[in-house]
UniProtKB/TrEMBL annotation:
Record keyword Cytoplasm present: no
Keyword terms: Membrane, Signal, Transmembrane, Transmembrane helix
Originating organism: Macrostomum lignano
A GO cellular component annotation in the UniProt record: membrane
Membrane topology: Multi-pass membrane protein
TM stretches of this protein: 228-249, 297-318, 330-353, 385-406, 418-438, 472-493, 505-531, 543-562, 574-603
Family of this protein: Belongs to the nonaspanin (TM9SF) (TC 9.A.2) family.
Protein origin, superkingdom: Eukaryota
The protein, known as: Transmembrane 9 superfamily member
Annotated compartments: Membrane
Length: 613
């Protein structure tokens, strides 16, 4: 009686927390609309200077005023308060001080002067040598300009562009187009007096406001026929894999079943043991044995399921909402979605862990006099919540140290680090623990297994073929899924590491779906081969067969670095390789989890129909 009361209380508490959670997740949707980008004539137009950095190292950015540039006279809001997502992307907005009012043309005006010293001249020369360019924002529209250029005749002379001509296209009181032209180059040398000037021209433009980002997109790149061709290829491959699995399920399995039932009917013990009793049926007493390291395994699968959910939601969100105007909108959405979906990870991880635990006690109670290890819920739940964030922090922390050493705008300040910590402790952890609680109580009982588990594990037979060794099977498993996505990955990489704005989310949605489909099919085939060689350790093998896609992707990333980009320097290199490692870890978790889920469905199905005695 007391326990039922307790259960009611727990249920109530859970419900309450769930409501709070729902409320929290809806709150950001309500306050979506901010200022509407409509200006009166004469209203102030703010120019935000963002960052400056070498052209070939996109992630190596510095605050614009770290170079000896000067601000205009106009005072205003001193520093823009960036969101966490913007901080991750290295956005660092500072007021340029240029006086621009809507629809009020400005003639060529000098806004500030500097005198170059030995140091500042060297700084500027270094910037010109490395093809530094800067970015600024006008009404959320990004504008790029180049710092200077090398003299064509004499490569020891470096010039600085000192004049900025803004051409602003307006349509119905809204800014729809901004062009920046640099002019008036001055030789950089110590002692030079340099005056910076600007001018502003307003033009009527017939670009509609909601199409104003279109000029930044590159359809000829993203809709190149190779992109379409690769998508068709992936389709064909996925179709082939689905057919393969269908073939496996119908033909091979039917053959196996009929073989087994013939053996069943045969009265002769001798014939029975020699003729047909081999293959996957032999391991029926072990196939539902929990994997080695059940805690780690359940944590990995839980995180993988959660990540797949987040990626799917992000792609759907990006497909349905135009995120161009939102600086770092996708990063912010990812942070939010990841925290909000952590109950899913907790749920799946705890349910799996609980099932593994109960399955292992079911056998050990007969063998070890009931001396099974007690479950470690707390450890599992906390580790489940903290695995991906600690993975990210473990990689990001050293890179951040390098960024701080470089004074890059991408380095996180301690307060931003604290807010990450706050998100993890106050949102991720409790939400994930709620998921753990629910998963354990609602889904923690193993559904009835088709076969009984043997008390003593069966010895693994000698492999007849080296291809049947689990590591080889796993490595081969990743090849086809990798082949189905690597062209899409080229486009994703190019938009991340170079200056293309990725906008073809329909492609990425299809590629993601095909990847999951290919992974599921390939894993099923791998598990069939593994079980057929009478090896019952299929759980880890199915996870690894999916996850090995990421190994190939990392190799591709190394190739991409050396042959497709021109990055240089410690900071950009460290950033590239650690970020790619994280990306591949995420992909490994996703594909591994999908592979395991598909394989466990497959295993359950085939053993449900076989008679065991
Ligand atoms: C900006 O440049 C493009 C391409 O040269 C041109 O079509 C457009 O009209 C320009 N916009 C303004 C406002 O001058």
């Amino acid at each position: 009686m007391a326990s039922s009361e307790l259960k009611q209380r727990i249920a109530f508490l859970t419900w309450l927390l769930f409501c709070i959670y729902l409320w929290l997740s809806l709150a950001p949707l309500v306050s979506a609309d901010e200022h509407n980008h409509v200006y009166e004539d004469g209203e102030e137009v703010v120019v935000w200077m963002n960052t400056v950095g070498p052209y070939h190292n996109r992630q190596e950015t510095y605050s614009y005023f770290s170079l000896p540039f000067c601000r205009g006279p106009k005072e205003g809001i001193a520093h823009y308060h960036e969101t966490l997502g913007e901080a991750f992307q290295g956005v660092e907005l500072e007021l340029a001080g240029l006086d621009i009012d809507f629809n009020m043309p400005v003639r060529r005006t000098t806004y500030c002067r500097i005198v170059l010293t030995e140091d500042t001249a060297q700084q500027l020369i270094y910037a010109v040598q490395n093809q530094y360019w800067y970015q600024l924002f006008i009404d959320d529209l990004p504008v790029w300009g180049i710092v200077g250029e090398v003299s064509e005749s004499d490569s020891d002379r470096y010039y600085l562009w000192t004049h900025k001509r803004f051409q602003i296209g307006i349509n119905n009181g809204q800014i729809v187009d901004v062009n920046l032209t640099s002019a008036a180059k001055r030789l950089i040398r110590p002692g030079a007096r340099i005056a910076f000037s600007y001018e502003v021209i307003f033009r009527q433009s017939d670009v509609p406001f909601d199409k104003r980002f279109d000029k930044y997109l590159d359809p000829s790149f993203f809709h190149h026929h190779i992109h379409w061709f690769s998508l068709c290829n992936s389709f064909a491959m996925a179709a082939f894999l689905v057919c393969l699995v269908a073939f496996l399920l119908t033909r091979l399995l039917r053959r196996d079943y009929s073989r087994y039932s013939r053996a069943e009917e045969s009265q002769w013990e001798l014939e029975r043991s020699f003729s047909d009793e081999f293959g996957w049926k032999q391991v029926y007493g072990d196939v539902f044995r929990p994997p080695a390291q059940p805690t780690t395994f359940s944590i990995l699968v839980g995180s993988g399921v959660q990540l797949s959910f987040v990626v799917l939601c992000l792609i759907l969100l990006a497909m349905s909402v135009d995120m161009n105007g939102e600086r770092a909108g996708l990063v912010s959405a990812a942070i939010f979605l990841y925290s909000a979906s952590s109950p899913i990870g907790g749920f799946v991880g705890a349910a799996l862990y609980s099932r593994f635990y109960l399955a292992s006690t079911a056998t050990s109670s007969s063998s070890n006099n009931g001396q099974a290890a007690s479950p470690r819920w707390i450890r599992q739940g906390v580790a489940q919540a903290l695995l991906p964030p600690s993975l990210i922090c473990g990689v990001a922390f050293p890179v951040n140290l390098v960024a701080v050493g470089y004074h890059s705008s991408r380095s996180l300040t301690p307060s931003q680090g604290l807010s990450v910590l706050a998100i993890v402790t106050f949102a991720l952890l409790p939400l994930s623990l709620i998921g753990t609680l629910l998963g354990r109580n609602l889904c923690g009982r193993p559904s009835k297994l088709p076969c009984r588990l043997n008390a003593v594990p069966r010895p693994l037979p000698e492999k007849r073929h080296c291809l049947a060794e689990p590591p080889i099977i796993c490595l081969l498993g990743g090849l086809l899924p990798f082949a189905s996505i690597f062209v899409e990955m080229y486009y994703v990489f190019t938009s991340f590491w170079a200056y293309k704005i990725y906008y073809v989310y329909g492609f990425s949605f299809l590629a993601f779906a095909l990847l999951l489909c290919a992974t599921a099919c390939v894993t099923i085939v791998c598990v069939y081969f593994l079980l057929n060689s009478e090896d019952y350790r299929w759980q880890w093998c199915s996870f690894m067969a999916g996850a090995s896609t990421a190994v190939y992707l990392y190799v591709y990333a190394v190739y991409y670095f050396f042959f497709k980009t021109r990055m240089y320097g410690l900071y950009q290199t460290a950033f590239y390789f650690s970020f790619m490692a994280l990306f591949c870890c995420g992909l490994a978790l996703i594909c591994g989890a999908v592979g395991f889920l598909a394989a466990s469905l497959f295993v359950r199905t085939i053993y449900a129909n076989v008679k065991t005695d």
